[in-house]
Amino acid sequence: MVTIERKGGNRTMDSGGWGSLAHPQDTGGAPPGPAAPLPYEGVWRFTAPAADSSVPQARHAVRDLLARQRVPAADEVVQGLLLIVSELVTNAVRHAALLSPMLAVEVGVGAEWVRVSVEDDHPYRPSALEADSGQTGGRGLLLVREITREAGGACDVEHTAGGGKIIWAALPLDPAAAGLTSPRPDLSAP
Question: What is this structure's pTM?
């Protein structure tokens, strides 16, 4: 079972919440001041056991949260986020469950960005290594990195104060409007 809680009533995230990503703000020449949060802004945390059944539960919880909050994310962003959540939770279940019987999925939504992260208590910091073409697994972090790159976002791994790790990915809600995606080649030409 996935337990969902809203973190501390915090409804906004400043640029510090997105790692090295800048949080775009247009002040129109006026000095920056506190802006009213948009109705969909906030930070939510889901906790679940580090078990195979948590992978689809976490994915569905993120999907349902984005829909319930009416987050104006482009469809390709939502699909990318759901795949990222699946990959990161699967990695936590497969590689961290022995030292981390519980995992946490956090979703942070700002005015123009959405960030998902998966936290576990295992100290090992994974790296996205090229997998042998004969292997059936080992490409999850490569996939996360590629989805994030194509959307114009960022991803990273950070250590927690308790010795575990957080793997996160942040994507713009509308990559095309933000001018962050590279144009797709026209495949219809002969």
Answer: 0.74
Strand, coil or helix: what is 112?
A: coil
Per DSSP, the three-state class of 56 is helix
The number of C-alpha atoms within 13 Å of 143 and in the hemisphere containing its C-beta is: 17
Q: Strands 3-6, 42-49: parallel, antiparallel or unpaired by DSSP?
A: antiparallel
d(CA 44, CA 79): 19
Measure the CA–CA gap between 46 and 102, rounded to whole angstroms.
10
Q: What six digits make up the tokens of 141? A: 């972090």
pLDDT tens per residue, range 34-61: 667 788 999 999 999 999 999 999 999 9
| Alpha carbons 129 and 135: distance in angstroms, whole number | 12
d(CA 1, CA 9): 23
Given the structure tokens 């009416």, which residue do they identify?
A: 70
Contact, 163 vs 123, CB < 8 A? yes
Which of 129, 172, 124, 130 lies closest to 148 in space, CA to CA? 172
Here the tokens at position 163 are 């010795």
